[in-house]
Amino acid sequence: MLSVGTFVLISIIKIVIALIVLLTAVAYTVWLERKVVGHIQNRWGPTRVGPFGLLQPLADGVKFIFKEDLTSPHVYRPLYIAAPMISLIFALTSIAVIPVGNWVTVGGIHTPLQITDVNMGLLIVLGITSMGVYGVALAGWSSNSKYSLLGGLRASAQMVSYEVSLGLSLIGVLIMAGSFSLRDIVDAQGGAYWHVIPRWNIFQGQIFAFFIYLTAAFAETNRIPFDLPEAETELVAGYHTEYSAMKFAMFFMAEYANMITVACLASLLFLGGWHGPLFGPAWLQAILPLFWFALRIFGFLFVYIWVRGTLPRFRYDQLMAFGWKVLLPLAIANLMITGLIVALKS
Amino acid sequence: MPDNYFARYLPLLIHFLLAGALASAIVLLSWLIGYRKPTRAKLSPYECGMVPVGDARQRFSVKFYLVAMMFIIFDVEAVFLYPWAVVLRQLKMFGFWEMLVYVGIVLVGFFYVWKKGVLDWGKATSARRGEV
């Protein structure tokens, strides 16, 4: 039982650490992407700033701050300034309920490795990430430029279309776990069958749900092959055509933060969260869950980048047809079949 | 942790406020430090170097509106499905049949929308000709 003051202080410490880790992860995902895509295309990627170009994200950040922050007179100013802030705020807030490990006791204080342990974490993550569409739609509209408007409209239509499939693909997992709490969902995936096959949800019949989720998540985060909102060959940069300097960088950061959230969610819901083999002395056993979780997230980010370096872009009518006519029926079929099996067994 | 249900949401609020402060700080910093030398050409809307004709407050395809309506319908469906999924183990087969009927009704509507061509963006469908 903690006093309110200690509780708030601990929360603030955890939030600051989480934000620093997330922003560093965002910066180094950009570096990783440039490096990996470079090697896929037989180039080196960043090499000049620091060893292996490792200081490149810092240099980019400084450069963004010193760039000219243009606000054209034809834009609708309040929303034009608010839109990148909305995108970034919701992208950063969505990690608030994501657990990264079990409860720990530090200095006599027992606290979860999570900013707040609520019993409907999944709903909160879905709610906050779906608010991100406001940033994109408002940016497109308030810029008052034709490219931006088209990009914003496409992005919002695409994001709401794939959000349906994304939401429905998670229902199979909810049926398996019987809880909205991300911690309970991970706990339900502990252990292994015959000490070999872990009880992760993808090995419990949710493999189709996993691929539906993965596809919908690519579309939700506006990544190739679904990056129609910023199709540079036709829309220049889509909804952020009119943005420059740090405001552009904020959309960029929001996109990468969303990628990381999506990767966290995929690991928690389908791949067993932080479960993995534990060995060695006590301090190693305390760190290993964090390491396994980070490894899964890294794997997802790598797949994101790999796909970007490999696949071409969809056409817009194909994109909408795929979302509504293929993914949505598949997601509904998956959830009904999972429901039937679970109802028969219980 | 204080023994109050709502206290669990307090860190979420703090996180939201801190993220908001960070976003404001970034915008402010960029506005303070960034160099500014606007010219007429820089301030015009970007249209690949062409002189812009009119602004972007024009009409756009009604399809986007239809997609938004479809989204509302299926999101409400998902809202019904979420609590059902969590308690399905207690409801057993009864819960499954009930939900099968509900999903069946939604799918009939989905099939109608599909045949009406709301989901087709390429072809000149009835929705394109304004017959929906």
Named CATH topology of chain B: Methane Monooxygenase Hydroxylase, Chain G, domain 1
Would you state the CATH class of chain B? Mainly Alpha
What radius of gyration of chain B results from the CA coordinates?
25 Å
Largest interface: A-B, 88 and 74 residues
Give a structural overview.
Chain A has one domain. Chain A is mainly alpha-helical. The longest helix of chain A is centred in the N-terminal third of the chain and has 37 residues, at 4-40. Chain A has helices at residues 4-40, 56-66, 77-93, 121-142, 146-169, 171-177, 182-187, 207-220, 232-235, 245-270, 282-310, 316-345; strands spanning 103-106, 109-112, 192-193, 197-198. Chain A is globular, with a radius of gyration of 21 Å. Chain B has one domain (5-116): NADH:ubiquinone/plastoquinone oxidoreductase, chain 3 (Methane Monooxygenase Hydroxylase, Chain G, domain 1, Up-down Bundle), CATH 1.20.58. Chain B starts with 9 loop residues before the first helix and ends in a 16-residue tail after the last helix. The mean pLDDT of chain B is 81.
Write the layout of secondary structure elements.
The complex is a heterodimer of chains A (346) and B (132).
Chain A: H1 4-40, H2 56-66, H3 77-93, E1 103-106, E2 109-112, H4 121-142, H5 146-169, H6 171-177, H7 182-187, E3 192-193, E4 197-198, H8 207-220, H9 232-235, H10 245-270, H11 282-310, H12 316-345
Antiparallel strand pairs in A: 1-2, 3-4
Chain B: H1 10-33, H2 40-43, H3 63-116
